[in-house]
């Protein structure tokens, strides 16, 4: 669980990002939506301990700033929007998710191997485990980094534009993976530009604008804020009952 109260980032000439109150729960999927430059990535980076803040961010009932880096990494896994192609194979990358538990010098335990295998299986990368990252497509690379975050086995996952470069088939798989993780009690907080996907797969949505969280509501409740959506994005949404649709929420002019 991540509980935020009167949080503010930014010092000096840097423009701040502020949140009055928000609660991101385990077992739930929450999306952060908003225009470009509204502070979505800033929010994730601050929770992940990469930016300083004032106020309170409590992760699993402990103030974030009171964790060491290793301790926080056992509670929150963060997957940034931009990931690198480094010179290693997929399995080695995924194994990096286990570093918070024993550092870079410890040998792999049975639990490490189990979590690595699980992450590779869940992301459909079992047959890629010995493939070098340089040989992967953009979407495959994103899945490999996602597998690393899953192997980290934290109560909360922070994902910034996680479906970037994925084709529709693997975008659909990705959201099934998130639902599987949520069913196991994992909390998911992700930045997503695609409104149809955000509304279709999220339990709650945080709407940010001008570097402030304006709304934090359930998907159904935010959909009723039609004027707010139109002012922010120029569109609103409707829900379809068509069972053949991949994303049941559709954009309206």
**What would the principal axes of the Cα set say about the shape?**
globular
Number of beta strands: 12
Order of helices and strands: EEEHEEHEHHHHEHEHEEHHEE
The CATH topology of the largest domain = Rossmann fold
Binned, the helix content reads 25-40%
**What is the residue-mean pLDDT, rounded to a whole number?**
89
Radius of gyration based on Cα positions: 18 Å
N-C termini distance: 36 Å
Largest sheet: 6 strands, mixed
CATH classification, class level of the largest domain: Alpha Beta
> Would you identify the regions where 5 or more consecutive residues have pLDDT less than 50?
none
Strand content: 25-35%
Give the strand order of the largest sheet, numbering strands 1, 2, ... along the chain: 6-7-8-3-9-10
The second-level CATH architecture of the largest domain is 3-Layer(aba) Sandwich
Instruction: Specify the CATH homologous superfamily of the largest domain.
Output: P-loop containing nucleotide triphosphate hydrolases
Q: What class, by secondary structure content?
A: alpha/beta
Structurally, the number of domains stands at 2
DSSP summary: helix tally:
10
């Amino acid at each position: 669980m991540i509980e935020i109260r009167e949080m503010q980032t930014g010092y000096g000439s840097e423009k701040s990002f502020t949140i009055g109150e928000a609660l991101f729960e385990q077992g739930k999927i929450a999306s952060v939506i908003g225009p470009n430059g509204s502070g979505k990535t800033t929010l994730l980076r601050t929770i992940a301990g990469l930016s300083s803040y004032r106020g309170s961010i409590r992760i699993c009932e402990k103030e974030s700033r009171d964790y060491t880096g290793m301790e926080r990494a056992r509670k929150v896994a963060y997957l940034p929007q931009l990931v690198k192609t480094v010179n290693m194979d997929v399995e080695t990358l995924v194994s990096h998710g286990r570093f918070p538990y024993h550092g870079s010098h410890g040998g792999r335990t049975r639990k490490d191997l189990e979590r690595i295998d699980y992450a590779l299986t869940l992301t459909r990368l079992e047959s890629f485990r010995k493939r070098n990252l340089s040989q992967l497509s953009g979407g495959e690379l994103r899945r490999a980094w996602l597998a690393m975050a899953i192997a980290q086995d934290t109560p909360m996952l922070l994902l910034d534009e996680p479906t970037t470069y994925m084709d529709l088939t693997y975008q659909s798989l990705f959201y099934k993976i998130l639902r599987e993780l949520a069913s196991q009690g994992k909390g998911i907080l992700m930045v997503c530009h695609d409104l149809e996907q955000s509304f279709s797969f999220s339990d709650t949505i945080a709407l940010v604008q001008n570097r402030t969280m304006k709304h934090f509501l359930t998907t159904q409740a935010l959909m009723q804020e039609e004027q707010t959506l139109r002012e922010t994005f120029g569109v609103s949404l409707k829900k379809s009952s068509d069972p053949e649709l991949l994303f049941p929420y559709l954009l309206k002019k």
